[in-house]
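The methods section describes the discrete structure representation at length, but only in general terms. The central task, working out the structure tokens from the amino acid sequence alone, is never made concrete. Nothing conveys this as quickly as seeing an actual entry. For illustration, here is how one protein appears when written out as sequence plus structure tokens:
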Amino acid sequence: MAPRPFGLTSRRFPRKLLFIAFLILVPIGIIVISNHSYKISYFFRPLWDNPPPPFKRLPHFYAENVSMEHLCKLHGWSIRSEPRRVFDGIIFSNELDILEIRCRELNPYITKFVILESNTTFTGIPKPLIFSSNQDRFAFTEGKIVHGLFPGRIASLGSPGNPFVLESEQRKAMNGLLHYAGISDDDLLIMSDTDEIPSPHTVKLLQWCDGIPPILHLELRNYLYSFEFPVDYSSWRATIHIYNPGTLYRHSRQTDLILSDAGWHCSFCFRHLHEFVFKMTAYSHADRVRRREFLNYSRIQKLICSGDDLFDLLPEEYTFKELIKKMGSIPHSGSAVHLPAYLIENADKFRFLLPGGCLRE
């Protein structure tokens, strides 16, 4: 038989290779995409998502020993004859240490701490009433705390429900608790999560000045795990309102005005490793726990000390420039300046929140 032309053989061989490569690479590609879909989505966010309209930042003037009258004037406001009453509305989950720092820091300026606690998480998991069993720790407030219980819903097996719905229900319930606490027109109302702490001089400024905006977002310095890891000034959800009958408790954008450098937001700032695990499975973004090993104590401890993300995610940014700039570990900071005074006064008790204290119990 005559030999086959070499050209025909060389054409068939690459087709076999392509077919084999297709059989190998397609399943690998599917596995890679499924395992890293969050990262891929976050990386390409600048292509599919638009940033919200920018805030109008109000300059914030403050220095020690400057009179309140002068500070009001610098902001374009006038001094009041007496300060407004202030109500601090807090949805509480399990941030006991941060709540103590918050209450100690703001106690001189607060009329009532209005704390709502549920017996379930936003994801429908039963939880102990942590604040209820630790109220003695807050005896220093001398009767300022109004504590309410919210009967949550336990999620059925295989159907956890929408955590944002449960979260919204708790925030609506806060409106009734505020009325019970005695809030009235022209009082100042702080709407923020436990770990979003306005600075004392911010609260004092807004309670003593006339002419302030009726709704004002607070720009908070954002920290992760402790005050050793400052992230940026991207925290904006905390608000202060001059209360009126139409005021509703929310945790979303409500105005274009934001007061610059108005406090601290310390997210995942827990003393114990089990508290990290609890929040990771309990809060509204619990779907970020994509693998069981994410909840491993040794893994969590390593990430806390390195300043890396608990959920192995990229930064949530709207431009590639900002995304690339924030990729990787959060740089350590050796500064413990301009932090809550009670934290510094009790540094031994709260060593885990300060530079060099990354090891958790």
Remarks:
- The longest strand covers residues 86-92.
- The radius of gyration is 25 Å.
- Residues 56-153+161-267 form a domain with the Spore Coat Polysaccharide Biosynthesis Protein SpsA; Chain A fold (CATH 3.90.550).
- The chain has two domains: 56-153+161-267, 273-353.
